[in-house]
Each structure stands twice: as structure tokens, then as C-alpha cells.
Amino acid sequence: MLSGMLFVFLPLLFGYLIPLHKKQPLQYINAATSHLVTVILALMGLSLAALDNLAQNLNQILTITTAFFICISVCNLAILPIMDKLFPLNSEGNKNTLPLFKMILESAKLLLAVAAGLLFGLISGIDLSWVEEASELILLILLFLIGIQLRNSGLSLRQILLNKHGIIIALVILTTSLIGGLIAALILDIPLQHGLAMASGFGWYSLAGILMGDALGPVYGGAAFLNELMRELVALLLIPTLIHRYPVTSIGYAGATAMDFTLPVIQNCGGIRCVPIAIVSGFILSLLVPFLMLFFVSL
């Protein structure tokens, strides 16, 4: 877990140490960030194509995934828009609201990149063992560029590290996700502690799948993986569509991924002022994932 945190914060830190005194280099960086987001989404599609066959117990996995995804998402999205009203966020995106069609089009472009990668991976038959390392490398570059953007955004270090919105978002996602997990457990008639554990992934699909698989078997592991992956995919749709009017909702629904994978999308669609909020909320949720999951499965 510590190495994962360093993986995220070191490139951000190194980028933050670089001041830029001219606008043109920053414009190039903004364009590069946008293009790299598309590339990493395509790689995500390739990684989906490389997954082992989930045909065994697939029906049970999909049933558990559907129940948890719907219950947790409904609980999250029932409260997050209220937080937008109570704690309004003045982001760059709010000042430059795009027409609804253009916002949907931006979301479609992001999902199309994932679909294109998935389709290519399935029909090409090429070796995909390199995809994970390539994704990590590009993510490092993205985080480095975002660090440069942060340094030259006019935000103070205090605004970046200590952010009221970020803390509130993390608490709301934590509370509503656990409530959703309890509801799903009651619907599926499974132990409540298993429901709480399943609800504690907050979008970190790789770790959630591993921890739940080790503790409760491959069915729960596969369901945890798909549940958190669905959160990330839906977040990719929500962020460009809603962040201009509902920034707290968009950042909050991204969960732990707001600190890393969806961070470039948040920055690209909502503006650099959304980045500190996403980092703080994502960091808190990422920190909680292994502790909460291991605690609940041990009950």
C-alpha cells in the first residue's frame, strides 16, 4: 500500500517543483495530458481483454456484482448532489459550462477509447502481457504533468493538501457505500460483514478483487473486481457530463480512483482547481480500502 501511495505522490511532487514562466509550454502540457488520457483508456480496454475467463460461476458473480453496484451507486448518488448544494465548489468547469450534447460526446469519446482497446485486444490475438506496465508508465507521466499544472495554477500548497471538500467527499462516500453494502447483503441474504467488506473497495478494483478473492473465494473476488471496475467506468461517463454542474458528485463517485486513474480526466474536464479535492478524497479512500476490507472479512 505504501509503495502505491509513493507511486502516485512522487511524480506529482516532482512535477510540482517545476515552475513555468511562459504560457506556451503550459498549453503544450495541457494538450499532452488530454491525449495521454485517451491512450491510457485504450490500454485499460486492452487489459480487460487480457482477463482470465470468468465463465465459471459467472452467473453468481454477475448477480452479486449487480446487487452491490446498484445499491452502492444509488446510496452514493442520493447524497452527493446534496453536498454540491451545501458545499458548492467554484471550479473552472462551472465557469465554462458546455452544452449537454458536447458533455455527453466527451463521455462517449472516453468510453469509446476503452471499447476500442477491448475490441482490438479480443480480435488481434496479440500478447498483452506488456499492457499493465505500459499503463503504469503513462500514468506516471500523466501525474508528473498534473504536478506541473498544479504548480502553475495559483493554488497554494495548503489548498492542495488540506482541503475541506476532499475530506467531506471521502466521508460521504465511506458512509453511503457501507450503507449500500448492508442493503445489498440483505437482498442477497449473505452475512452483513461480507456486504460491508464488498462495499469497502471504493473503486480500487485490483486490490479489492485480490483481497476478497483471498478471503472469501473466487466468486467474491470476481464480483469485487467487476463491481469496482463498473464504478470506474461509470465515473468516466459522469465526470465529463456532470462535473461542470455537480463537481462534488463527479469527484466523489470516482472514489479512490480520483487520486490516480480518473484524476487526469477530472483535471481535463473540471479544471485544475478540482485536482486538490480529488487528491485528498482519493487518498483518504485509498488508505481505508485495505484496512476496512481486512477488518470486515475477519469478523
UniProtKB/TrEMBL annotation:
GO cellular component: plasma membrane
GO molecular function, one term: L-lysine efflux transmembrane transporter activity
Keyword match Ribosomal protein: no
Signal sequence range: none
Top-level taxon: Bacteria
Record's keyword terms, sorted: Membrane, Transmembrane, Transmembrane helix
Segments passing through the bilayer: 6-21, 28-49, 61-80, 110-131, 137-155, 167-190, 202-226, 233-255, 275-297
Pfam family for this entry, one: Lys_export
Tagged with keyword Cytoplasm: no
PANTHER family: LYSINE EXPORTER LYSO (PTHR35804)
The protein's name in its UniProt record: Lysine exporter LysO family protein
